[in-house]
Every structure is written in structure tokens, then in C-alpha cells.
Design brief:
alpha/beta; 8 strands; globular; 293 residues; eight-stranded mixed beta sheet; single chain; Rossmann fold
Amino acid sequence: MQVLDEATVPVTRLVELPGRGVTRMWECAGPPGAETLMLIHGVACTAELNWGRVIAVLGRHFRVVAADLRGHGDGISSGSRFRLEDCADDIAALAEVLSTSKFVAVGYSMGGLVAQLLYRRHPSLLSGLVLCSTTGTVLNSALEKLAALALPATSMALRWNPFLRLATAELLGPTLLGPIDDPDIASWARAQWRRTTLADAVAAVQAASDFSSDGWIGQVDIPSAVVVTTKDSVVPVSCQRELAAMIPGASVYEVDADHAVCITAPQLLVTALLEACWSVRPGHGRPLASAGA
């Protein structure tokens, strides 16, 4: 009988961030002295949905932390306005609570935007940056089109229809993540989406649609890697590659899958993700050439 290593078994708990609120985090202790990965999930997701199928594998090599962002799942209340900057500051506060002075920020989709803001706002905390299925600007993506065409009407309806305030992110999830063919996995995803209100998901999409790091992402001076999902129907592949090209020395790792690969084919994602995370470990230096490009 196989004995599971307790260090790689994900555990979850609620954590209070002083002056900010309470959020739920998942954690794998990892090997003694291992580098910390701070996993940051995408819009309308939870940490469990985005990372639950890869966290144990990552935990064999790293200490892994993944928290629900504000307005998502069991995250901090988003208040009157959802801001990506607040999400980045929440993660910095979580690192302080966990006595983590350095970590690799690993962001997926909208989480990649938050990871970029972490570098911008808290550079001393980051030892590396890994950006997955994301972009430096949401312009021309499915997310931007959704924000421009559908969300203004949705926001108005949410404001005036009290019944819609009970609606959840399940209404947007399939559009924001891409197709999930397996019925059991789709059922699990719907249950996770229902943990976030539609109003919070809409606010997050609107905040993401206004994001652009084009003016400063070229200043990144820490080891960085970009994981590109080459069949992505949500974030254009060209935008993912453009982001990688703008970050000095960033290595590139390709996954032959759509935007929902973190859920539908985690074994494909985790292979590239491990390579990306290994490439930015302290002491290994900045990658000099792209891998898999």
C-alpha cells in the first residue's frame, strides 16, 4: 500500500489578514526548506477549482500556498469596488501572516494580472514570476469582449433586479474558462462557481478588462517564465506570446490545450508548470533562452 507523504497532502484553513478580512487558503508544506509558490487563481474561480488538481504534485517539490481572492469563494469581501491592486495587496499581507519573506508568484489568467501587480507593488517579496494563460492587456481577448458587450447590461440588471443578486458565477464560468466536456468535472466546476456571486464575478471581469502592464512589464528584473496554452479560446495565444516577449529573459513553456487545462487536463499543465517554476528558483539565475518556443 502506498503511503502518502503528509507534506504533499493539501490542507485548508481560514486565515485572518489584519485590517483586511478573512480568506480561505490551501497549503502543501513541501520538502524542508523548499521555495514557496504563491498560486493565484483566475476570475470567477476559487483556489480549489483553479489549482486543486495540481497542488499536490507541486507540493512534492515546493511549499505551495493558494488562497481565494477577495470576492471569490471564501475570500475577503470585495466591498463597494473590486480592484486587482487590492488582491495583490491581500497576497502580500498573507505572506506576512505566514512569515514568508520571499516567494514565487504563480498567476493563472486573471491571477496572472494580479501576479504582475504583485511585482509592481511589492517587488521585494518576489523571487520569481510565473504567468500562465494570461496577458499584459485584456484588449482583444474574450474577456474584454465580454466586458464591452454583455457586462454593462448585466451590471444594470444586478443593480435593479433583487433576484439577480442571488445569481452566481455559474452563469459566466463556462465563458470565462472554456469548455469542460467531462460531466463529473463540469459538475464540480459548477459547484465551485456557485461559491462566487455573479455580481462579484462581473466586477472582477470589469477590473480585469481595464488592466494593462504594457508600460512597465518590461522593467521586470527577476527570473520569469510564461506558460502558454496554445489552443486557448479565452486569452489569445498571440497575447500570451507578446507578454513573454516583453519580459526580459522570460522563458516560455507551451501546453497544447485550451484555457481550462488546469481543470480538464491537469497532467498536461503540471508538467510545464513544474518546468517553469524550476526555471525561476533562486540560484538558478535568469533563463537566457526560451524553452519550448
